[in-house]
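Q: A reviewer asked whether we had any structural model of the full assembly, not just the individual parts. We don't, so I'm hoping you can provide one. Inputs are below.
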Amino acid sequence: MDLVGLAFYFLAALIVISAAIVVFSKNIMYSAFSLMFTFFGVAGLYVLLNADFLAVTQIMVYIGGILVLIIFGVMLTTRITGVDVKSNSLGKIQVGIAGLLSTIIAISLIVVFSSTKWFLSEPKVSGDSTKLIGNELLTNYLLAFEAASVLLLIAIIGAAFIARRK
Amino acid sequence: MTLEYIPLVFMLVFGFGIATVFMYLSEILGAKRSTKEKNTTYESGMTPFKTARDRFSVKFYLVAMLFLVFDIEIVFMYPWAVQFKQLGSTGFIAMMLFIVLLLSGYIYVIKKGALKWD
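A: Here is a predicted structure for the entire assembly that you could use as a starting point for your response.
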């Protein structure tokens, strides 16, 4: 097995194991921290896919931002230490529906995975993807770039509005 | 291309390894002379007066949400900054438009008093 394959299987194992801890951990704080390793593993997969800018973005936004929000969310809840806050405190009906939905999604994913003809090609663009993204974003995709700023503006206003409703 | 990341792998392995090894070395080799003072939460610090696992104020959440928005702004600024010279004045104007839009949101947040603590 070559080095890239070894790295892939290491990252895949990291993602699957830490994601399993997220789901099965009795303590929701352990789940939140385990999610960090899942995000790191996904960032590593982006590196293997030659998407280094996406990998840095994954670390900055998901680990630096969203994970902090999730941990804040846990700390805002009541009874952090109590046994009530855990991922498997669900009723039988909820477990049934969730299990059914997950099975359907899993089956469709397996069908798609096995019926797709996978193309294993060398990446067309090589080198620094950040430079290419910068060029494309501010020339060909300028409208999408400015639309993103409007979207962020909406997020700021929404956050301030909801938190300070008087 | 992926070979460029070998130093990163080394850094992660050594960082993780050194942290783990030193933690267990101090556990194994370190002296354990426990006194009453050493067992307090903050040695020579203030005495804790209630549990640390308390509910946090929702204000932290608002600050974190606003942080996330400006964090994403940085992600957008980074590829522009890398190609700053090549993109020239057009890119500069486009980025300024981006920043001004977010700045107006920031001014709204301040005017709304969302960053005031009480």
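A: Points you may want to mention in the reply: Residues 157 and 163 of chain A are 10 Å apart (CA to CA). Helices of chain A lie at 3-24, 28-48, 52-76, 92-115, 129-137, 142-163.
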